[in-house]
Amino acid sequence: MAGNFMEKARQPGRCVASRMLCGLWRCLRPITPASGTALVEKSFSDDGESEMEVEYGYISTESTDSLTDSILDQRNALCSNYQREDVYEISHHMITLLENGKLFQAPIKTGTGRILDIGTGTGLWAIDVADFYPSLEVIGTDLIPLQPASVPPNSKFVIDDAENLWTYQRDGFELVHLRNLAGSIRSFENLYKQAFQAIAPDGWVEHFELDFPIRSATNNDSLPECHPLNAWVNALVQAGDQSGLTFRITQDGRMREQIQKAGFVDVVEKTWKVPIGDWPTDPTLKQVGRYSVEFLSQSMVDMALCADEVLGWGGAKTQTLVQNARSALKNEPSRLYYTALCVYGRKPVRAA
């Protein structure tokens, strides 16, 4: 039984739960030219503009002959072939509802300018921003091209590893947006520093993360560490620690502190409770809770598989972990929730 579970879950084309898993898979499956699966990094002209971009969802191959089937293979192996409503879309709808329809919290100037979305995934957030603010140029970046074929004319997508040295024009963006990158970044401190260089004076950085562990609103906001849902969360955190791709950026005020350390001022931290299930009386939160259950349920297998790869558990233990966690999602009488955290800060006009 365990063998069948693992075999099916590892089939090429299976949806990986979120872009944070792409980071784990990048760590677990090193990509080198020798292996024939090298990612093609963007190159830039003297004016700072990318010469290799994904225009309207398609890869422009005029500037890179080496972008071949290897990219498509990685896309299939990691995060594509969404035959169901995928977790990118579910999480985007859930977060948008949670934020009362706002696409960002930072008070940016929306007249003109450029926005950079790091780890854009399927590009849903970037596309929505481009639709709502047609005078802004929105650039989304990710390791793998997952964006749709039809996108707004003021949006574009670039294949890029955000942990490499950024070569964007300095002071070029009104907002650098980061979302759900926990478990995919080795050094958030370095990421924030590079964002600081890329943001224009008076521009903003904004980082949104879902913050685990799972808590109970009926049990003094606590839930035992041995609870099946927390056992699943702890496996992810342990795998992140072991692989060097931390999930702990949301803990102990680290996002806020590191954003401030990078040089940003007027830093604001906001938190929300994200219900699991439709137990809230508020209609919007009730819908958020329904999305939350679906998000977690669809994410569990793929996330657990990544943890299994790092921790070397074997299929039986992974299957038991997922089965117990999914059962708890459906049958837990407590009013469960986790938190969401958003931190944003402004680059001062006279940056040091």
Question: Would you give an account of this structure?
Answer:
With about 350 residues, the chain is of the alpha/beta class. It has a single domain (about 1-345), classed as Vaccinia Virus protein VP39 (Rossmann fold, 3-Layer(aba) Sandwich), CATH 3.40.50.150. Helix content is about 35%, strand content about 20%. The chain has a seven-stranded mixed beta sheet with strand order 5-4-3-6-7-9-8, sandwiched between helices. It is globular and about 50 Å long. It starts with a helix and ends in a 6-residue tail after the last strand. The relative contact order is 0.16. Mean pLDDT is about 80; it is low at about 1-20 and about 25-85.
Summarize this, please?
This protein is an alpha/beta fold and 352 residues long.
Question: What general form does the structure show?
Answer: globular
Strand order of the largest sheet: 5-4-3-6-7-9-8
Number of strands: 9
Fill in the CATH topology. Answer: Rossmann fold
Helix percentage range: 25-40%
Level-2 CATH architecture: 3-Layer(aba) Sandwich
Strand content: 15-25%
What gyration radius follows from the Cα positions, in whole Å? 20 Å
Compute the average pLDDT.
80
Largest sheet descriptor: 7 strands, mixed
Return the structural class: alpha/beta
Indicate the CATH class: Alpha Beta
Q: What is the overall number of helices?
A: 10
CATH superfamily: Vaccinia Virus protein VP39
Distance between the termini: 59 Å
Query: Segments where pLDDT lies below 50 for 5+ residues?
Result: 1-20, 24-85
Number of domains: 1
* Order of H and E elements: HHEEHHEHEEEHEHHEHHE
GO molecular function: methyltransferase activity
Protein name: Methyltransferase
Organism: Pleurostoma richardsiae
Pfam family, one: Methyltransf_23
